[in-house]
């Protein structure tokens, strides 16, 4: 009997080992199922029809919904509003679910043309006839800023434009032009209704006002940035005053909820040391390897704890560098649009 028991024992150990292995496997599988089930997050679908997609983008991202956009053009409805949603409002769905939204493109869609280097007459002709799909539409000029020519720059020539070339937008967006003066008596802006210093630069893009002052070798400071009443005021000069010490600029600025690929940036820095400071903007044009630099502040004396402010228009990965004559690099901003 004892010998028979000893013969069976190895087999019993093997069966026990296999049984324990299976038990561990099934317990582990059960725990995985339980944990995964527990981790499945449910979210409540909000009602977004009639809202502008930009306004709800962040909320939908927070709910971890995978948004897919489709478009439809209804000119009578506001550009950018949501016309329909694939998941009914109030429905509970899993995080990560796909959500299809139909967004209205009320305006004709256009790509901003490149008019830099063109004479003003030719540029106006180009902007009057911009291709949108299979038809041509006009782009409205928001303002023309005249600046003194430097070096061999030809008169009446486009030096810069906002928005920058290549921007995908709608035909309702205004375009601003920076143009060399035809003669020294030319007004700073076509929008100016009188010759007073306080009104010359109001209503034009802040970077263009800075360019004008730089060319005139007039010191300046941006004293404040306030929220505009209307979105189209974003990035424009709200006030301008010329004092014996230099120009004071007020700017309209609307902080975006999302960093757009092309937009205005408001920068502020509190000076650490008394010094003479300069600042430059540098960027590389998309598809090119050449870095372009432009000075936006030249040899201005700034005191410790004084705040220096800049409003720039970013259309590529951009770097802004603030330098002290004696103290070296004070601040570097690296700016990039993501949406």
From TrEMBL:
Top-level taxonomic group: Bacteria
Pfam families, per the entry: PASTA
Protein name per Swiss-Prot or TrEMBL: PASTA domain-containing protein
InterPro entries in UniProt: PASTA_dom
TM ranges: 12-35
Native organism: Leptospira levettii
Ranges for domain PASTA: 39-105, 106-181
Gene3D superfamilies with a match to the protein in the record: 3.30.10.20
Lineage: Bacteria, Pseudomonadati, Spirochaetota, Spirochaetia, Leptospirales
Keywords recorded for this protein, A-Z: Membrane, Transmembrane, Transmembrane helix
